[in-house]
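Internal tracking record. Fields below are filled automatically when a chain is submitted to the structure queue. Please do not edit lines marked as system-generated. If the sequence contains nonstandard residues, flag them in the REMARKS field before resubmitting.
Queue: standard
Priority: normal
Entity type: single polypeptide chain
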Amino acid sequence: MKHLPNVALRVLLTCFAVVGGPLAVRAVAGDFGAAFWAYARRPIASGFSAWAGGAGSGGAAGMQPVSNVGFVPSFSAWAGAVSSPSSGATVAYGATATDSALSAEAGVARRRPGQDLDAVPPDPVFTPPSALGGNDDALAIPDRWRLVETLKVKKESLLDPYNQNTLKADRPIYGRDWFLNLLVVSDSTAELRRIPQSVGNQANRGPRLDQFAKGESSTLNQNIITSLSLIKGNTTFRPPDWEFRFTGITNFNYSTSKTEGALNVNPSKSDGQGTRFDSHFAVQELFVDKHLRNKSDRYDFDSLRVGIQPFISDFRGFVFNDQQPGVRLFGNFINNRVQYNLAYFRRLNKDTNSGLNKFELRNDDVYAANLYYQDFPVLGFQLQGTVLYNRNTEGDRGRKFDTNGFQVRPAPFGNQLPHNYDVTYFGVNGDGHFDRLNLTFATYLARGKDSRNQIADRAVTIDALFGAAEASLDFDYYRLKAFAMYSSGDKDPLDDKGEGFDAIFNNAQFAGSETSFFGRQSVPFIGGGRVALNGRNSFIPSLRTSKEEGQSNFVNPGLRLLGVGTDVDILPELRFIANASYLDFDNTSSLRFLRTQGKIDRHIGEDLSVALVYRPLFINNIVVRLSAAALIPGDGFQSLFDTRDGNQIQYSTLANVVLTY
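SYSTEM-GENERATED OUTPUT FOLLOWS
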């Protein structure tokens, strides 16, 4: 019984160890009250961090930090305590590492069995905050965007667009969320071509009257593009709250031609040597963009854009690809899986020689609505449905002449009477990949009414089709591709149906259009060369005066195109591009009627083109492109241009240098 108090005391200490964490064991030595008071008065930190009493047998100890103490019982809790015969202190057995402060409090350092006792380690010394210096030693950082420069890690250079640069919207220019983005581009092009040039009587010399003259011509074109964007908002994860953008282009162009009357309706205005110099300034973008709302925590949004702005009707720009004044509501939903556009545009006239905007509105309206659905029918593929409505009432304005004095509206052939039309385009388009196979396609149905077509000389109902597709496979450093295009042609130019497909303003990136002959060059046809077989940067043989200033024409021969191509990365900075296309008219009845020829074969010819694209810095700040294209005339082309030049190979060469800041 005499040991009963000791046993009860041991049980009580064990309960304190399990429930309350580490407890000074000096109670066994008779100082239980002081130890318990030291434990009870310790402050408790968040996360159950506690402070235990310091060294000293009397309990008047300083406070030392210990690790987090839990209140979950474990076998690492104190199992008991015995008195050390050498020091009279109490040593705990079975204590955890969190109990190092208690060992020091008992005057004994923790050790392994069999080792000599070490000296008690000194209390840790904490440097008072005053010794670290006051606020005078702190670095003033204006904002997080200027942290690198403030710490003198790297100094900003306004000439370097790829590191921190205030002019490239890397830092705010006002407040904390107003940014300025400056873009400057120099686009220089030199082009030499040979095309069959249709001329009038003023170009003939000698006893022979030629319908076509030598078609050699050249163009030097310089565009200086300056774009300023003022943006409000943090655009890292969401659209900007506001955006104000201005893009202006200053153009200089110089053209030469061996054919008199090809550059101006008055040959005397071509400097007497078949040359022409012109310049123009155009505003290609001038809009304000307002972020209306976020619809989810994934930043699904709605935005409204008003002003001159770019718009592309589909993935490749087959029907409408232009910068025109208008209003556009756009956004997305379902975590950006679905995007939409609702837009209205009133088209501007284009400058004749540069192809850029003029501050002159046309009676030509475009309404557009489309919907994109991502990852359908498989991951990595995107479908688009689109509806475009084009209403042209320029027949109410009478005749229109371009800068060089040539008539462009109505086209100088057929009845030459002003006319109006309205047409709706229904399209289904796709872009993406099925496993390794890359695929892009576009299909359109055009339905509408032309009040008085110039060829049919009557009102016609528009019913035309268009389709295009490109498939490609990537193999390491090269890509192989195959492509096809179909544009329906009119079967009877004198009936009340317009079955030839025509676009609003197309600029398709397809079949090597940037370098091909038929896709880039405008081939003159009739009316002294003022009506072209196809427009510049357009494969569709629409028989318009020009894509920029003329009206759409839905009585045309249409086109069938089949081709193959390859893109080869010879070096990381050097790419080789080659394309070959086989071209046919879909139906030549409209050509036979206009030329009063008995037979015109459908075969246009073979279009072959090659190009080298060089990026010396591995980026797009400097891009050099050299290309050459040739059209090997088929029977149909030779039937249309049967002259001393008509049976020869038609060609074009191009050198282009783009410098971007």
